[in-house]
Automatic annotation (TrEMBL), chain A:
This is Protein-methionine-sulfoxide reductase heme-binding subunit MsrQ. It comes from the Bacteria. GO terms for biological process: protein repair. GO terms for molecular function: electron transfer activity; FMN binding; heme binding; metal ion binding; oxidoreductase activity, acting on diphenols and related substances as donors. It comes from Marinobacter halophilus. Belongs to the MsrQ family. The chain crosses the membrane at residues 12-30, 50-70, 82-103, 115-133, 153-170, 176-196.
Length: 205, 270
């Protein structure tokens, strides 16, 4: 019994650490806004940074399975849900910032029907919505065998997010080439290890 | 370095000026990187003295000019212009320089000169953005104006801002300022001027002709395919409340320039 208690304590402690680490980008953003380091066009800068942070957390979430496979340590899985929810958290803030700071809640119809890069980003967010909703233990039980295929929606979402960024790269796409390669490796490893069909969302078995 | 100049109030707005630290820390100058802070960080790697400009094409006085020789006959003036970026932000900047028309006239363009074309310095050793493998810009950066646009009284060659020599990130030692057009037309660090009979291809037009045209007049009626141009954020902008203002056709310079485009469909010639 004492051993289990000790492990539980370490686990809780580790989760707290990951949680705090995941808030660091937000803390730095708030700090830059407060000190003025964010620059003369804060709306643009805040929106961009929140979006990129969400994408980085998405890649981190997708790195968990490969990490588990490579290191042989299953413990990585304990942090996946939290990281996934942080993707959703930063993506939600990103969209709120976009609506409030860049769009001012005007031009909504044109923006979400006529601007392809917005459509790509918005679709990615819609795909992630059911994943966030079904992330609790209770919902996992209720969804049952369909849970895993449902959560493979994260793959098309990740690709759409990348497209959303690439579409906006104005002249130098180096950064998005790097992110694209990382995404390709993360998805490619899965295809290599488990077979391409295991990447298809909503497909049972 | 402080410059000698006289004010040109007839060409200046009395709107509140954008603070100098915003003007010099928030730049699009992709030769030094695509981040807004990259030019301030890295433009110091460019040497601007000595500087010469190659003049060629349809004119009577082609040749390689030292910058001082080109500027010597002219007195500097200060003009406070609005600058509207195609990305929907704007600034108010006190430029110091000379009218473009005065400099072009001294080069004696011939009657065949219908356009004037400009190039930015191309030197990957001094400009790290030009060393990037995945840049879609075909260097050097190129811009151009129709001759009557270039000769318009508003077209300006700036060598300074806020009374001092241009910082490198703002396009030292000499840059174009065309206040009724989106900012990307105002080419920086000019090393070549060519008078042409045919319309030159310009950099953004080469990259994305559906998004950026040759004329690039500020126009709230013609959206960029990716965003609206009806409004702009006048910088510095607030955090929770962006400093939105309505965008005005020709950036508010309609009176001086609208005649240049009489009869032209500006939604087609954007």
């Amino acid at each position: 019994m004492p051993a289990i208690t000790r492990n539980t304590l370490i686990d809780v402690f580790a989760r707290c650490l990951v949680f705090i680490a995941a808030l660091v980008p937000l803390v730095f953003l708030v700090k830059d806004v407060a000190t003025g380091d964010i620059g003369p066009d804060p709306g643009q800068a805040i929106t961009e940074r929140l979006g990129l942070t969400a994408f980085q957390f998405l890649l981190l979430t997708l790195a968990i399975t490969p990490l588990k496979k490579v290191t042989g340590w299953n413990g990585w899985l304990r942090y996946r849900r939290m990281l996934g929810l942080f993707v959703f958290f930063y993506a939600s803030l990103h969209i709120l910032a976009f609506l409030q700071l860049l769009l001012g809640w005007g031009d909504l119809w044109t923006t979400f029907t006529q601007r392809p890069y917005i459509i790509a980003g918005a679709t990615a967010f819609l795909l992630m919505l059911p994943l966030a909703v079904t992330s609790t233990k209770a919902m996992m039980r209720r969804v049952g065998r369909g849970w895993k295929p449902l959560h493979r929606l994260i793959y098309p979402a990740a690709i759409l997010v990348w497209v959303h960024f690439l579409w906006q790269a104005r002249s130098d796409i180096t950064e998005m080439v790097v992110y694209g390669l990382i995404l390709l490796v993360l998805l490619g490893l899965r295809a290599y290890w488990f077979g391409l069909p295991t990447l298809i969302p909503l497909r049972r078995g | 370095q402080a410059l000698d100049y006289r004010a040109a109030p007839q060409f200046s707005t009395d709107e509140q000026k954008t603070p100098v630290d915003a003007v010099t820390a928030y730049n699009n100058f992709y030769e030094f990187g695509t981040g807004k802070g990259d030019p301030e960080r890295y433009a110091g790697e460019m040497s601007v003295d000595p500087w010469s400009i190659e003049v060629e094409g349809e004119c009577e006085r082609p040749g390689r000019y030292a910058l001082e020789d080109l500027l010597k006959p002219h007195e500097y003036e200060e003009r406070i212009y609005r600058l509207r970026c195609v990305e929907a932000w704007s600034m108010v900047i006190p430029w110091v320089g000379v009218p473009l028309a005065a400099v072009l006239k001294q080069l004696a363009p011939t009657s065949r000169a219908k356009y004037v074309y400009f190039e930015t310095l191309h030197d990957p050793k001094q400009m790290r953005g030009q060393r990037s493998l995945f840049s879609t810009i075909e260097w050097p950066y190129r811009e151009g104006l129709r001759m009557n646009e270039a000769m318009n009284e508003l077209s300006f060659l700036a060598v300074g801002l806020y009374g001092e020599t241009l910082p490198n990130q703002n396009g030292a030692p000499i840059r174009l300022v065309v206040p009724w057009k989106y900012g990307f037309k105002s080419i920086k660090s000019i090393v070549r001027i060519r008078f042409m009979e045919e319309r030159p291809k310009t950099s953004w037009e080469m990259i994305a002709p559906n998004e950026y045209g040759f004329y690039a007049n500020v126009n709230p009626e013609v959206d960029h395919p990716r965003w609206s141009q009806k409004r702009e954020r006048r910088l510095p902008s607030g955090v929770l409340r962006p400093n939105w203002i309505e965008t005005i056709k020709f950036n508010g310079y309609e009176e001086q320039v609208a005649h240049l485009y009489k009869g032209m469909d500006l939604s087609r010639y954007y």
